[in-house]
Amino acid sequence: MTREAVIQEYTYAPAATDEATSDLELVRRSQSGSREAFSELVRRHQHLVYNVAYRFMRDATLAEDMAQESFVKAYRLLKGFRGDCSFTTWLYRVTSTTCLTEINRRKRRGEVELTPESGGALCVTEHKPAEKDLKEQIRRCVTRLSDRYATIVTLYYLKGISYDEIAQVMDVPLGTLKTWMFRARKQLRFIVEKELTNNG
Known about the structure:
elongated; 9 helices; single chain
């Protein structure tokens, strides 16, 4: 199945099987080449995938794109699904990883947006020119963190993703993630202070 065909399945996703058919059975049929079975998996889980993508991207259009991309990636990786976890859990992980890859790509291109859904230590308002300048400085400072630290700062402060979810996506213990966040905050504070001093 081509990428375009997978996207078409996502877009239309007609009901192809009885609701009683398990996800695992549909996965097995999909692995054997059944497009109808994969179409049914898309139909069942497209709202979940979109909602996960929206939590990461905070933009409806980007979430739609990432949802489509996630199903493309899921179809490509489906042969390796062994049923060690539920299909829903596996698909959540695929979607999260797809979004994380896009966030990192945008970070490298300097497209990190400081517009968190909820307040936080990095929240900067947009009403005054001086505050806009500060927002831009902090955005630049985030991109100067290591990839690991920039990722967790972006996900937690700018995307509103919880510690538990970040730890799951990055496949690390919660304690390790909290240690990384402590170090990331410390590094970011140092970078921001240096930036403000140099431009003050």
